[in-house]
Amino acid sequence: MRHRGVRAGMVASAALLGAVALGPASPAGAAAGVTEVALPVSDVAPAGLAAGPGGSVWFAENAGGLGRVDSAGKVKEYALPANSAKTQGAADGMAAGPGGRLWFTDSSVDVPRVGYADPATGKTTLFEVPTTGDVNFAGGRLTDIVAGPGGAMWFGGGAAPAIGRITSSGTVTVYATAGASVYGLAAGPDGAVWYTGTDGSIGRLDPASGAVTASYPPSAGSGSPALGGIVTGPDGALWFTEPGVGMIGRLDPATGGIDEYPVNTADSAPIGITVGPDRQIWFTEAAASNIASLDPGSGAVSEYPLPATLSAPMRIASGPGGRLWFTEAGKGAVGSLDPAAPPAGAPHPAVPPVAHGSMPQVAAKFQAQCPQNHACQTQVTSGGSVKIGSFALTLPPNAIRVTGYISSLGPGSVLNPPVMGNQFVSQPVEVPGGLIGQLPLVGTVLGKTPAALLPVNRLTVTQSLAAPITVQLGPGGIEATAKLNVHLNNQLLGSSCVIGPITASLTPAILVPGGAGDPALGWTPYPVQINNKIAVPAAKGCGPASILDGVINQMMGLPSSSANNAMNLTGVMSLGVGVNPADTPAVRSTAAPSALSKLTAGLRPQPKVKKSAAKRVRAPKKVTVTLKARH
């Protein structure tokens, strides 16, 4: 029996979230014990992570490649090579394996892959797993990976009801599950591989025979997502998260008995789980931006707030320095804390759920910029270049961001400005060599002289919207068009030197067909590319009384037809549903989150509840193949 009185109180308290600002504010003094390392592009949605050599931590990016945080806190990222279909990968799960290799899964649907990185060089080796045959990973969207029995790596098939075993030479054995889509994996104390299924099952796979036994905890089947991560605890039991119903489960492998422990914060979506160096069970609360621990002896749960809400902490693991490390997909960071000195302060309440008690909502920061139940999107550039006439500029990460929501896709529809924050953000981009560097023929030489370093020569470029962004539904999905003004910022040119308006298509080509992103996320991040030919008019407003217009136009070769100009950008487009309870900033409340925490003060976890698990056994079914390594 669930403790409905306690749960009802927590649900009623969480319902007040509509009066709580959804920005990144935290209670005073909260999260002082957390260290966070921001990623170069926040939207890449970091997921799985593992400890590497030399005090490093490696992580997978759903909309990027692989990343490493070194012992000094510096980040280096490594792109994944394209697959045989010439599309990009989407890394998700990660684990350390034999020989010091860092293994990871590729959750792209068209060509699911498993691979490993050499931590010394970042070079990757990948294997495209079978998508045909009696047991396969077709449409798999691979999730977790773990070092398991036989010195091999074991990985989950995601949407494909299968589990794989792979050696470093590329020999793969594919095992059928009991019909479950696998999310989390753990090597059990009994020599078996245990997994969580999105159908609410806890499965046990016998590596020798391939036999699968699935247990069904009564609570798990009533929520979505039904189950999350799984780990072998210090007591020899299997511990797992139940995000849909806000519980932590414990399965005794000797008896099959299941205990469940309610999490204090309602609708918090516990997902990632690990054993800390203190022998406590630690887990993430993805919908509430908290990290929590559970004492396996008493069942007591303690919760600790991260520095900001909408951080969406996903996976968690023990790492260097005796610290617990975790990924924050909602804000694009890798965090850590000392389990002996966790952050103080009241835990954050959860994002308003789709349905209280059964359907929590894991959301990213950008979704708070859009009203509830509206399609919300943000696009940010990660690199690329812009060519205008004879002028070319390489763009750094985060140069341009567009955010907004869509109310309709009929004729004349626009991308609505967000209810908080800016719709179009353009960071100033420094032009190498300044104005002198743009002179025809001699600019490349003069741009390196001492004169080029003078403040009066400094030139930066920004962009702004000249009209609302229009949207429509096209053959490939939503298409967007923007009219942009390019601003040349320089002391001599003044503050009104503009090239524009330039009509540009912001419709991206998606580099991962079918989308990327951990299935537990409440949004989808897409690696994208924009290649757009643009016609560019002459510059105007340059210098006092526009006396330098002719100079700029001659230097840059303006006006210029679309055949001579291009925007070639890479980036990340994220799509989700807005979670802001208000349509306009004027009616949004600024109530402090601490006001809500007072209502939940004193709510403690109830004694564990014994559960008897229903079971289903599947006859062994497996296939072994040898794969080709790709680099």
Automatic annotation (TrEMBL):
Entries under Pfam families matching the protein: Vgb_lyase
Keywords from the UniProt entry: Signal
Record's signal peptide: 1-30
Record-linked InterPro entries: Vgb, WD40/YVTN_repeat-like_dom_sf
Record PANTHER family: VIRGINIAMYCIN B LYASE
Record's protein name: Virginiamycin B lyase
